[in-house]
Amino acid sequence: MHRPLLRPLALALLLSACNDGSTLTEPGTSGSETTGGDETNGVGTTTSASTDPTTTGPNTDPTTTTDATDATTTTDATTLAPTTTSISSTGPGGVCGDGAIEPGEECDDGNQVDDDACSNACVTSFCGDGIVNNLEECDDGNDDVNDSCVEGCKTAFCGDGFVGPGEACDDGNQVDSDDCSNTCAAATCGDGVVQDGEECDDANGDDDDSCLKTCKVAICGDSIIQEGVDECDDGNIVDTDACAGCKNAECGDGFVQAGVEECDDNNAVDADTCSNTCKTATCSDTKKNAAETDVDCGGPTCMDCADGKVCKAASDCASGTCSNGKCAPLTLTIPNCMAANVTAATVFPMVMQPSCNCHLGGAGGLTMSSAANMKTNTVNVEAGNAQMKYITPNNVDQSYLLYKVFDQHLKVPGGGGSKMPLGGNLTAAQQCLLVNWVKSGAL
Q1: At a CB cut-off of 8 Å and minimum separation 6, what does 210 contact?
Q2: In 236-301, at which residue ranges do the beta strands (DSSP E only) sit?
Q3: What tens digit of pLDDT does each residue of 139-193 get?
Q4: CA distances (Å), 145 to each of 98, 153, 161, 180, 381, in order?
Q5: Computed over its alpha carbons, how large is the radius of gyration of the chain?
Q6: What is the β-pairing status of strands 247-248 and 243-244?
Q7: Phi and psi at residue 10, to the nearest 5°
Q8: CA–CA separation, 292 and 310 (whole Å)
Q9: What is the C-alpha separation between 340 and 433, in angstroms, rounded?
Q10: DSSP, res 103
Q11: What band does 92 get if pLDDT is binned at 50, 70 and 90?
C-alpha cells in the first residue's frame, strides 16, 4: 500500500501556500534524517534516495517496506516542485493599492497616485515627507522655516512671518512704515519710507535739502545750511550774533548784533532814534534824527535851534519865536519913542529909584541902588534863568529887563516871574527913557 506517500505531498502544498522559506518537520520528528546519499526536494526537506527496507522512520508503518525498484510504488522527491504566487505586499497579508486598509498600512486609497493624501506606500501624506501632495505648495522634507518652503508646506513669500532666502527681515505684515518694509528689507533712514521715529525720508543722503540724512526735518539752528533757505546756521537760536535767524546779521534786520551795532530798529528810516548805520541818534551826530526839528537842535533833548532853523514850537528856537516853521529872532514890541541920548545917570533917578525901589535892596537877586551898580549888575549880565542878558547894549530885542517892563518876558526862553514894576506900570516917558538908554549903548 502507498499511504506513506500522501504525507510528503501535503507537506509540500502547505509550504508552498505559506511561502516563508522555512523548513517544516512532520509532527513527532526531530528533523531530517539522512541515510546514504541525500537529495534536497523543492520544499527544503531531505529524503533518502534509496529506501532501506530494514530501516523505518518514526512515521513509517513497521509492517510496510518500500521497494526502491517498484516503479509504481516509488516517489521521486525531485518531481514535487513548490508552487508560488507573486503579490505586492506592505505587511503580513496586506496589498497596497487594493483599497482595503490591512495590517501594516496607514491608508489605502486604491490608486497609484503618489501626490494625494495616501502615498503609493500606503502611508498617510504629511508636510515634511518630501512629497508634494495636492494640498501642498511645496515639500522639501524638512522643518526649516527659513528656506524656500516654510511651515505648512507653503512657498515662502515676503510677509509670511519667516525670514527666508534673500530677506533681511519678515514681520508677517504689510505695514511699510515699521521696522521691516513690505519688500522684507530692514528699515533704514534713506529708504524713502517714513518709519516710526523718522520725521521724513527723501531717499537720499543730502544734508542741504529739507530732509537731513538723519531723517530729521531741516530747521534753523541745526548747524546745517539748507540750500536756498539758509544764509548761515551756527547751530544756535541766538539772534544777537553774526547769524540771526539763519540770515547773515545786518543793520536793519531788527536784531542788535552785540559789539557791532548800537541799535537796530528794523527799518530804513534814518531820522528816527536809530540811524541806518545802526547808531543811536545823538545831538552831535550831524544828522537830523530822533525828535530833532533840525540838525542836532530842537525837540525835547537837543539844544534850541538858531534863527532860521526848522522848528515846530517856540521852545525849539533859541529866540523863543517859531514863525512859519522857522526860528525867528525874538522881537520886543515897544512904543514909538523919539530918539534921544540917555545915560544911566538919568535913568536911575528918573525911573529905577522912584518906580523899582524894590531892587534898591536887591530883591529878586538884582541890586540897583545907584546908577553905577545898576550898570554893573545889568549891562551884558545873563538874566537869571532867562536865556538872555538883562541889558544888551544897542539891542532892545535882546534886553530882558525891557521884556519885564513891557510884560513880554514870558516870550523869552526861560523867562518867568512878574513884570516890572511889581503891581504897577511905568509911564510912557519912563519907558522911552529905558529904551533910549539901551539904544544909546547903555552908558
Answers
A1: 200, 202, 217, 218, 226, 229
A2: 243-244, 247-248
A3: 888 888 888 898 889 888 898 889 988 888 988 888 887 888 888 988 888 888 8
A4: 37, 9, 9, 18, 116
A5: 71
A6: antiparallel
A7: -65, -40
A8: 9
A9: 8
A10: T
A11: low
CA distance 315 to 312: 8
> Phi first, then psi: what are they for 351, rounded to 5°?
-120, -60
Q: How many residues are given for the chain?
A: 443
Which amino acid is residue 189, in one-letter code? Answer: C
Question: Mean pLDDT across the chain, nearest whole number?
Answer: 79
User: Which pLDDT score, from 0 to 100, does residue 60 have?
Assistant: 38
For 343, the enclosing helix (H) or strand (E) is none
Q: Check if the beta carbon of residue 211 is closer than 8 Å to that of residue 201.
A: yes
Average pLDDT over residues 290-312: 95
* Grid coordinates belonging to 333: 514890541
Cis peptide before 421 (omega within 30 of 0): yes
185: exposed, middle or buried (C-beta count within 10 Å: 0-12, 13-18, 19+)? middle
Fill in the amino acid letter for 28.
G
Alpha carbons 244 and 260: distance in angstroms, whole number: 13
Distance between CA atoms of 35 and 49, rounded to whole angstroms?
Answer: 8
Q: What is the distance between the alpha carbons of residues 126 and 123, in angstroms, rounded to a whole number? A: 9
What is the DSSP code (8-state) at residue 355? H
Burial of 253 (0-12, 13-18, 19+ CB in 10 A): middle
Say which residues have a Cβ less than 8 Å from residue 132's Cβ, sequence separation at least 6: 115, 138, 139, 153
Strands 154-155 and 243-244: unpaired
Distance between CA atoms of residues 2 and 66, nearest Å: 9
Residue bearing cell 502547505: 14
Burial (CB count <10 Å: 0-12, 13-18, 19+), residue 374:
buried
AA identity, residue 20 = D
Q: What is the pLDDT of residues 203-255, one digit of tens each?
A: 888 888 889 988 999 999 899 898 888 899 999 988 889 898 899 999 999 99
Give the C-alpha separation, 243 to 230, whole Å: 10
